[in-house]
């Protein structure tokens, strides 16, 4: 509210009333530690990330979300181009004949496939599926385009949407019926090349989570039971939500082996003139990443955005008091935002005069802006600005002359602090167990459990069955690449047979 205007007392009283009313409209009614589900729903709406849509499980992604997605997309797209992966686009629709060709694969997706059965009032002669993922859409054409070893490797990626219809509890970002993602589909002449790429892509996914979203993840391999349907093996980055005690499959990089090549006859003539089958990979990450970020960093005031992905990294707010030189304050705010923008920061100033500074503080805190800069009469007099961090509310006065350097340092510090705090919380939830009793005890305390396992699918299914309850069963999340030493004679926590490896277990989204 611009200050320093003479007003009669009744107008002042009215204005005060209006202001207070506005300020009570902000703030969350649910607390993160008390009712996580309610809190999450409130945060994604109040933080202007999504709007609910009139079809269950579908959400409108608002500009605040799209700008975060674009930052990640900018990073990932540039990195895969360095690997000589090319972008393309395939249609959204799949013919049933092609979809059913790869039996294991389609069985894995069958309940989630949405079908188009009508055109206007007429029934379609043959229903058409909407892609849940694009292996079966793309691979008939790979068999057409790949003839000889000179056509390899074929490395394509598409940025698109997919539709997966079947589930009971839609959750914005985490579990929605339509979502945005990238999906890479590559074909090689040798398994070695395919294996190498799987891990290179997985490392890029680790970067997205740890270096952009400030979320610690575990790199590992999925069990046979949990791997991608129709693939040879699946690697993933796994995140963890301490508040709910649930793991989240953050992104996956699959080696498909030669299964799809067999089905779709993707053959080539090798250098010796012999007929051979290609080795394939597919890999993807989606807008689910944004939901994980909200869950990990958000607090009772709303979103907390890591500076690297925030649409607005610095918000400048004028704080004019009565009798202050309001115009001068506004000028300096404008100049400050301009200086920061020209120095490469995503900065804006909030000049709305129908809201008080206090209301604006709450509003931008709710939206998770990493750094707030306040400028009032005292700051003008001292040629400084007041900077307030979103992550820990720490305040610091910055001289105008060193504004750019200090803002740069502050944002870097916020980014690192968010990661450190998230890692500390996650690590405090990891529990190593060796017996079934320890396992069930840890599970009841929402832990991320690391246990020795015999690597048998029947045992894994048995664990799932024995832990089935109202809040979902426990399952394997991944076997970490970084394996702790497995002492001789160590037994599987669930079967008592000799353990083959350490594996993370828990409930998951």
TrEMBL record:
What EC number(s) does this enzyme carry? 6.1.1.15
The coiled-coil segments of this chain are none
Q: Which UniProt keywords apply?
A: Aminoacyl-tRNA synthetase, ATP-binding, Ligase, Nucleotide-binding, Protein biosynthesis
Q: Taxonomically, which superkingdom?
A: Eukaryota
Q: Which InterPro entries would you find in this protein's record?
A: aa-tRNA-synt_IIb, aa-tRNA-synth_II, aa-tRNA-synth_II/BPL/LPL, Anticodon-bd, Anticodon-bd_dom_sf, Pro-tRNA-ligase_IIa, Pro-tRNA-ligase_IIa_arc-type, Pro-tRNA_ligase_II_C
Q: Which Gene3D superfamilies match?
A: Anticodon-binding domain, Bira Bifunctional Protein, Domain 2, C-terminal domain of ProRS
The EC category is ligase
UniProt catalytic activity:
tRNA(Pro) + L-proline + ATP = L-prolyl-tRNA(Pro) + AMP + diphosphate
* A GO cellular-component term linked to this record: cytoplasm
SUPFAM superfamilies reported in the protein's UniProt record: C-terminal domain of ProRS (SSF64586), Class II aaRS ABD-related (SSF52954), Class II aaRS and biotin synthetases (SSF55681)
Transmembrane stretches, by residue range?
none
Q: Which residues form the Aminoacyl-transfer RNA synthetases class-II family profile domain?
A: 91-306
Q: Residue ranges under compositional bias (Low complexity)?
A: 1-13
Pfam families given in the database record: HGTP_anticodon, ProRS-C_1, tRNA-synt_2b
Residue ranges, annotated region (Disordered): 1-20
Q: Which SMART domains match?
A: ProRS-C_1 (SM00946)
Q: Name one GO biological process term.
A: prolyl-tRNA aminoacylation
Record GO terms (molecular function): ATP binding; proline-tRNA ligase activity
Q: Can you name this protein?
A: proline--tRNA ligase
């Amino acid at each position: 509210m611009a200050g320093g205007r003479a007003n009669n007392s009744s107008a002042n009283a009215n204005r005060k009333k209006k202001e207070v009313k506005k300020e009570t409209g902000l703030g969350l009614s649910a607390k993160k530690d008390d009712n996580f589900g309610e809190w999450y729903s409130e945060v994604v709406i109040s933080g202007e990330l999504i709007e609910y849509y009139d079809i269950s499980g579908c959400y409108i992604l608002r500009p605040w979300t799209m700008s975060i997605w674009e930052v990640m997309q900018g990073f990932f797209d540039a990195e895969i181009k360095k690997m000589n992966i090319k972008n393309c686009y395939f249609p959204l629709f799949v013919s049933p004949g092609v979809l059913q060709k790869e039996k294991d694969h389609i069985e894995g997706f069958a309940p989630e496939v949405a079908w188009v059965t009508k055109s206007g009032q007429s029934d379609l002669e043959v229903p058409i599926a909407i892609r849940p993922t694009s292996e079966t859409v793309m691979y008939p054409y790979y068999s057409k385009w790949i003839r000889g070893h000179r056509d390899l490797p074929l490395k394509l990626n598409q940025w698109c949407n997919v539709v997966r219809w079947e589930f009971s509890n839609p959750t914005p970002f985490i579990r929605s019926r339509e979502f945005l993602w990238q999906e890479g589909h590559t074909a090689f002449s040798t398994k070695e090349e395919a294996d190498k790429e799987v891990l290179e892509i997985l490392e890029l996914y680790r970067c997205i989570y740890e270096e952009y979203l400030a979320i610690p993840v575990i790199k590992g391999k999925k069990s046979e039971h949990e791997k991608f349907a129709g693939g040879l093996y699946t690697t993933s980055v796994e995140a963890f939500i301490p508040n709910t005690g649930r793991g989240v499959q953050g992104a996956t990089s699959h080696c498909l082996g030669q299964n799809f090549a067999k089905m779709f006859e993707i053959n080539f003539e090798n250098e010796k003139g012999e007929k051979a089958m290609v080795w394939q990979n597919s890999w993807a990450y989606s807008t689910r990443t944004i939901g994980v970020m909200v869950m990990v960093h958000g607090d009772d005031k709303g979103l907390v955005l890591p500076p690297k992905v925030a649409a607005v990294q610095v918000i400048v707010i004028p704080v004019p008091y009565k009798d202050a030189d309001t115009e001068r304050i506004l000028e300096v705010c404008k100049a400050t935002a301009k200086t920061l923008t020209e120095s490469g920061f995503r900065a804006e100033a909030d000049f709305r005069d129908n809201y008080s500074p206090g209301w604006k503080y709450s509003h931008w805190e709710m939206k998770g802006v990493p750094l707030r800069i306040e400028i009032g009469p005292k700051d003008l007099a001292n040629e400084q600005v007041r900077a307030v961090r979103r992550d820990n509310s720490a305040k610091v006065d910055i001289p105008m002359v060193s504004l750019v350097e200090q803002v740069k340092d502050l944002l870097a510090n916020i980014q690192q602090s968010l990661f450190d705090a998230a890692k500390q919380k996650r690590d405090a939830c990891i529990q190593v167990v060796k017996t079934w009793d320890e396992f069930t005890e840890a599970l009841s305390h929402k832990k991320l459990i690391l246990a020795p396992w015999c690597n048998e699918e029947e045992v894994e299914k048995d664990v799932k069955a024995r832990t089935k309850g109202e809040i979902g069963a426990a399952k394997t999340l991944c076997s970490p690449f970084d394996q702790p030493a497995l002492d001789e004679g160590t037994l599987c926590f669930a079967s008592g047979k000799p353990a083959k490896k350490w594996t993370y277990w828990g409930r998951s989204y």
